[in-house]
Amino acid sequence: MKVSVILPAAGLGTRMGRIQPEKAGTSRKQFMLLDGQPILVHTIRKFIASPRITEIVVALRAEDIEWARELLSKESQTKPIRLVEGGESRQQSVENALNSLSPDTDLVAIHDAVRPFIDLAIIEKVIEQAAETGAAIVGIVPVDTVKQVHLNKIRQTLTRERLILTQTPQVFRYDLLKKAFEKARDDQFTGTDESSLVERLEQIEVSVVPGSDRNIKITRPTDMELARLFLASESAGRMPS
Predict the structure, then answer these.
(1) 3 state SS of 55
(2) DSSP-derived 3-state class of residue 12
(3) Nearest to residue 112, comparing CAs of 84, 99, 93, 96?
(4) 21: helix, coil or strand?
(5) pLDDT tens figures, 195-220
(6) Positive or negative CA dihedral for 218, 166, 194, 110?
(7) What are the φ and ψ backbone dihedral angles of 211, each rounded to 5 degrees?
(8) Rounded to whole angstroms, how far apart are CA atoms 116 and 118?
(9) Best CA proximity match to 79, nearest among 114, 120, 44
(10) Overall CATH class of domain 3-235
């Protein structure tokens, strides 16, 4: 089974403020250093290590491609890593990468470039589920009480057991994902994740695989402190409490 993973990494990372990135002249979160390596590299290594992944496709801003190519040339090349030009939005970046895939691709996984602590077992489980059902994502049940509001007034308290916080990877059949992006483009619809595009087709139910609190998305400077803790834990071969 041919499984390609797309890592959208063309975002500007404006919420990261002034933390010094590896690539001079940028403030983008995917290039922030974690133990001497950009976050993007740590994320790529997880998918290099996954036996279920056939190839890795990274969508980058045009001005970052040559720099990233040189950076990744130092990494273990046990499977193909391709770089494509992304777009002005995440959706455009994923679609550009999707259009670069071979038509004989079976499944496509999309994973945030700034989630370097995805567990290999979760990658395995979500791919297995998508292979069976056609569409699967990773999610966790919120621990906080969630309320629906309007104009700063509470309208409803939502039942947590029926809610999830979505994570990545999100994995779909290649043909299904292509159709979802085509419809979104025709309708000029912009989704917050790939699952929202697939859901609009009303062709298939998207399954959910339990995620992990460790699978954080690094978007703010304070996230880096937690990331350093998780990385030290991984290096020591143990899970943090």
Answers:
(1) strand
(2) coil
(3) 93
(4) strand
(5) 999 999 999 999 999 999 999 999 98
(6) positive
(7) -95, -150
(8) 6
(9) 44
(10) alpha beta
